[in-house]
Amino acid sequence: MAPSPTRLLHLPLLAPKPSPPRCLVSRRSRPRPAGDAARCGCATEAGGGGGGGGSVVVEDDLYELLQVLPRDLRDNLQNEPRKDQLLEVILDLGRRPEARFLGDSGGQYLRDSEISQQELEEAQRAVGEFGGDNRAGIEGTLHRISAIRSRKGMVVGLTCRVGRAVTGHVHMVRDLLNYKESILFLGRPGVGKTTVMREIARVLADEFQKRVVIVDTSNEIGGDGDIPHAAIGGARRMQVAQPSMQHRVMIEAVENHMPEVVIVDEIGTEAEAQACRSIAERGVMLIGTAHGEHLANIIKNPTLSDLIGGVETVTLGDEEARARRSQKSILERKAPPTFPFLIEMRERHYWVTHRTERSVDMLLHGKKPLVERVVGIDSKDLSSYSTATPAKELVLFIEKMK
């Protein structure tokens, strides 16, 4: 179904070079059972929005994920009108199974009886072995199954998360890719960071003709199995044996495989932050994600603050303090940021983009940061920011997604 028309307010200054023509192709990892189009989980929406033409294609391989579930739950979800919006299925021992959908704050029980130990064991056998991070996948798909264990190591709960390949929605940041500068995506779990990483990898590899390497710690970007999912296009994928080794594989990717772009999901340790800085200093474009909802969360996080340049305490002289009308001890950014751009993903269609260096400095000085780019929200939602004006050579881009 075609989406409603979008409203655009665009004050174009410092516009990037025109993007190359888009060629959107819906790919599938392997043939589906004949005569069952619903199992494919492939939906197309006309018009990509935001310029650039093309269409948005969503493929979720839902049929494969449903095979992990008990038969009655499988049949229930096959007939669910909102199955295209399915986010995850929760299977907890001794509790009723629950389905959660995009846009809903609560869940929906799938039956009145509780999940048994036998059902959990059968689901676990269908999934296979879990990694050191208690995550597993289904080969050839993008789904993620995460385990909850008891003290004795027994699986007592499963979170079966739907992984979707969304082709054609990268228009929300497409022009930023032309700047060839590193971008950090910030957002809480479930807001769609990994989906965006996957599509950016495809666009950079296939349309921008870049050498792209994905450091895929949990096989969420490229899918489970040794052959990566077709949704990442021509990008190459390096798997990580243990989550604690992610920073080593990041450096190995640069030293051994000559990438122009490195993509890494869920940066969360000091070693990974240092690896990001090392990669950026070698002239490699870096696309990464981290947990958090606002830029201020990263500034206050001592583990990840190096991503935005780090923070240090500076003591001012008496005259300087009087000139600034501030205390003598103040906080300052101590280095250039690893990621020149930072995007707050508040919701799936609610993004705020910062020029990191400028926004960090203004926050540390107690001012509202100037927003260069706002995507997917109305201007009334910008109370925490100051919008830029053409005289300051900034771009304000407000797109209302309906």
UniProtKB/TrEMBL annotation:
Keyword ATP-binding in record: yes
Keyword Nucleotide-binding: yes
Species of origin: Oryza nivara (Indian wild rice)
SUPFAM superfamilies, per the entry: P-loop containing nucleoside triphosphate hydrolases
Keywords: ATP-binding, Nucleotide-binding
Pfam families, A to Z: Spore_III_AA
Name assigned to this protein: AAA+ ATPase domain-containing protein
One of the record's GO molecular function terms: ATP binding
